Amino acid sequence: MPLLVSDYSWTQNDSTVYINVPLKGAKAVKVDIVSTDEYLKVSFPPYLFEAFLFEPVDEDRSSAKVGNGVALISLPKRINKQWDQLMITTISDDKDKKKEIRERALLRYQEKLSSESRQKAEKRQADKKYTLEMMMKLEKEERENIQKIKDAEREKTAAELAAWQLRQKQEAEEDAKLSQRGSPNQQRADQRTNSEAKSSKKQADPPPPRVSGNIQITFTPRVFPTALRESRVAEEEEWLNKQAEARRAVNSELLEELKDLKEEQKNPDWLKDKGDKCFASGDYLGAVNAYGLAIRLNRKIPALYSNRAACHLKLRNLHKAIGDASQALDLLTPPVAANAAARVRASVRRGSAFCQLQLYAEGLQDFQAALKIDPHNEALQADTQKIREIVQGSAAETQ
Questions:
Q1: Rounded Cα distance, 7 and 367, in Å
Q2: How far apart are CA 311 and CA 284, in angstroms?
Q3: What are 313-351's pLDDT values in tens digits?
């Protein structure tokens, strides 16, 4: 049976109720919070806090922050007025009524989660459909351009052939007229024949030896530095195609919303450079905003997620850092030499966030993955060894 938390505190104003629940040493990742318009539950085994609220609240605008050993829940009121108390006292001994409210709240919470999951899936499907339509449109335009070039070349060749046939016909008619005029014309025809014979004889003579020289040879540059026999050509081509697709996959609906911005401010690459400059100057919130807008415009560029994860690390938004680093690693596929450095950065950033949350085993896995990509990085070797010692020390202490 769970232990009920009684040492909570709460404050209010006309529009919002604030509840402060001590977590009694529980880690943030083990806290489960369920909030509806009439019920609130904070579970961190073996402790449990639940409140049957005095008045309805706006569950869509409710929020919770977990950290520094407490859970702070903000509940906006539906009606702006002061509450006499936090919970309904009339049902304190009515177990059936509590059970009914609890089950109704949990059912509503599950339906909300299912709806959010379904909306996310529909949005992902819509993004994929839009990307596919854009690719098909671009390929159609390319095919049409190639067909236009072919048609133009065909017309040009047909015109040249018709002109050559006309010249041949005119020359044949002139020769026929000369053959009908008599001996002077015949003499001129013989002279022409002799001259043609002489010229053909000259042409038959072998040409003089050519002057010796050097032939310059150039090789077509490859995108990847590895030798062709050592490269995974299919994976490399897939990576290049994904990068090209990412550059084309721009959210046109968002561009319509941002039509008042300058043209360069609608470019994800320009926003990425802006975010990099803000990060370098220490303006981490500005960098997060720049990367976030770039991601809304184009969700296929892994560097945007990885750089935003670095900003969240600086701001101690550790769960958001883990989410962005994971998204970057999902986009950095297939693993090839061209994205090796990016995979190392994303793995280290996610591993650092795990370690700061005291999840050293998960952090060690990310650092080992980064070290496998870059085994000669001395700083990475040292960090991995430190985390390994912490994990081993924890395991020995537990035993």
A1: 40
A2: 5
A3: 999 999 999 999 999 999 988 888 888 999 999 999 999
Q: E-assigned strands of 60-170?
A: 63-67, 70-76
Cα separation of 330 and 304, whole Å? 13
Cα separation values, 293 from 272, 274, 302, Å: 9, 11, 14
- Find where tokens 């020359």 sit: 171
CA 211 to CA 209: how far, in whole Å? 7
Length of the chain: 399
d(CA 51, CA 62): 15
334: cis peptide before it, omega within 30°?
A: yes
Q: Which is nearest to 53 in space by CA: 83, 13, 8?
A: 83
- Nearest 5°: phi and psi at 226? -75, 155
> CA–CA separation, 17 vs 83, rounded Å?
9
Count of Cβ atoms closer than 10 Å to residue 62 Cβ: 18
CA distance 399 to 396: 5
Which class for 221: exposed (0-12), middle (13-18), buried (19 or more C-beta within 10 A)? exposed
- From CA 16, how far away is CA 86, in angstroms rounded? 12
Nearest to 56 by CA among 39, 44, 74, 72: 39
- The mean-pLDDT minimum among 125-139, 153-167, 192-206, 276-290 falls in 192-206
Measured distance CA(369)–CA(343) in Å, rounded: 9
CB 37 within 8 A of CB 57: yes
For 24, the 3-state DSSP assignment is: coil
Confidence of residue 364 (pLDDT cuts 50, 70, 90): very high
Question: Which tens digits make up the pLDDT trace of 13-28?
Answer: 888 989 888 887 777 7
3-state secondary structure 197-246: HHHHHHHHCCCCCCCCCCCCCCCCCCCCCCCHHHCCHHHHHHHHHHHHHH
Rg (CA), the chain: 38
How would you class 136 by CB atoms within 10 Å of its CB: exposed for 0-12, middle for 13-18, buried for 19 or more?
Answer: exposed
Q: How many CB atoms lie within 10 A of CB 271?
A: 23
Quick one: average pLDDT of 39-57?
83
Run of H or E residues at 262: none
